[in-house]
Specification:
By secondary structure, this protein is an alpha/beta fold. The chain has two domains: 108 residues, 3-Layer(aba) Sandwich (Cobalt-precorrin-4 Transmethylase, domain 1); 152 residues, Methyltransferase, Cobalt-precorrin-4 Transmethylase, Domain 2, CATH 3.30.950.10. It is 37% helix and 19% strand. It is built from twelve helices and twelve strands. A five-stranded parallel sheet has the order 3-2-4-1-5, sandwiched between helices. Strands 6-7-12-10-11 form a five-stranded mixed sheet, sandwiched between helices. It has a two-stranded antiparallel sheet with strand order 8-9. A hairpin with a 7-residue loop joins strand 10 and strand 11.
């Protein structure tokens, strides 16, 4: 049995009760934290809280060399852990399909997602979101300006009156960052002000909403012009941005009251 368990958004307590029980019942537990991570805890704290040893996998262990996980699941009850919801990433869907090809039974225990949290914290209605996009670090995509995948997604959603969720880049054990900083343990998380600085070249006057540390006891939600958000600081990771489309009057009220949006940007 291979059980995919979403750990939620922030720390060792963000998991659902069902997920906690499934993890404690497992014979063996693997985790990956390269697609996302829990910034409010550590692997050691996860292990202590759940009384379970966790084997952390690198990207290649999941995408190219999954044999260790699959072979274990053929004879044991194996938990595969990720931040957020475990089936948001296509990498995890692929691993589940590989398990099915080998005749391994699978189960999914969901966790809350950044998308659900962004809608809840901002007051923007979930069914009014269009396609999401990911904003990479400028050195990661090898082109000048914003990648077309980002601008096309924002522009197409806005044409349809839909909101755009912009995930911000995460680089785990990033070689380029290590080369710059000389730190072999360096992980890099794009902040919302950096993201806004990137977006300001194309959309300086556009309304955007920052969501920082969703799932934590004190999340930050801030709405303003993209150019103005670029000059603010929003604290530690994880961050994301939302570019609103057409606003329902309840959404306008929510952005004004919950995110401090200037009234002139809500008309």
């Amino acid at each position: 049995m291979l059980t995919f368990i979403g750990l939620g958004l922030y720390d060792e307590r963000s998991i659902t009760v069902e997920g906690r029980d499934a993890l404690r019942d497992a014979d063996r537990a693997f985790a990956e934290f390269y697609t996302s991570t829990l910034v409010g805890t550590s692997v050691a704290e996860l292990e202590a809280y759940h009384d379970t040893e966790i084997e952390v996998l690198e990207r290649a262990d999941v995408e190219q060399r999954p044999e260790r996980v699959l072979a274990a699941a053929e004879s044991e009850d194996v938990a595969f852990l990720t931040a957020g919801d475990t089936m948001i990433s296509t990498t995890h869907v692929d691993l589940r399909l590989r398990a099915h090809d080998r005749g391994v039974e699978t189960r999914v225990v969901h966790g809350t997602t950044a998308q659900a949290a962004a809608s809840a914290l901002t007051g923007l209605q979930n069914y009014r979101f269009g396609k999401a996009t990911t904003l990479p670090f400028d050195y990661a995509h090898g082109a000048d300006g914003l990648p077309a995948s980002v601008t096309e997604t924002i522009d197409e959603n806005r044409e349809r009156g839909l909101h755009t969720l912009v995930y911000l880049d995460i680089k785990v054990d990033n070689e380029a960052a290590v080369a710059r900083a000389g730190d072999a343990e360096l992980d890099e998380y794009m902040t919302a002000d950096t993201a806004a600085e990137y977006l300001a070249g194309e959309y300086p006057e556009l309304l955007a909403v920052v969501v920082a540390r969703a799932g934590s006891p004190e999340p930050v939600v801030r709405a303003d012009r993209v150019a103005d958000l670029a000059s603010e600081s929003f604290g530690g990771p994880l961050h994301l941005l939302v570019v609103p489309g057409e606003l329902h009057h309840v959404e306008r009220d929510a952005l004004r009251d919950l995110a401090g949006a200037p009234s002139e940007l809500l008309d």
